[in-house]
Design goal:
By secondary structure, this protein is α+β, with helices and mostly antiparallel strands. It has 2 helices and 4 strands; from the N terminus they run αββββα.
Length: about 100
């Protein structure tokens, strides 16, 4: 049984994810010292001084992000929002132009 062969009878179902590193999954420790930075009811951002990471919760999903990762995520979100805003302004201008050309619809 070499080269990564599975032992006889060892099956993984869809409900049993493969865990590579338990430490990366169990980020929240009993000694976590969370400071709430933002909370709008759907999204919550905590900073943990013990872990030195941000705990970003969106709905039922929590991401544990290092400070550099949060900065990168914030930049990506801001860039995306700016593009959507420009696209929305272009769509609004084109719709306004069509309304002026054909005021009755």
């Amino acid at each position: 049984m070499g080269g990564g062969a599975k032992p006889a009878g060892a099956k993984r179902t869809l409900h049993q994810p493969r865990i590579v590193n338990r430490e990366s999954i169990a980020m929240k420790k009993p000694s976590c010292c969370l400071e709430t930075l933002a909370d709008d009811g759907l999204t919550t951002i905590h900073y943990c001084r013990t872990c030195a990471v941000f705990h970003l919760r969106i709905g039922y999903t929590t991401l544990h992000v290092k400070p550099d990762g949060l900065i990168g995520l914030g930049n990506a979100i801001n860039t995306s929002l700016a593009k959507l805003r420009r696209r929305g302004e272009a769509i609004a201008r084109s719709q306004a132009g069509r309304e002026l050309e054909n005021p009755l619809g």
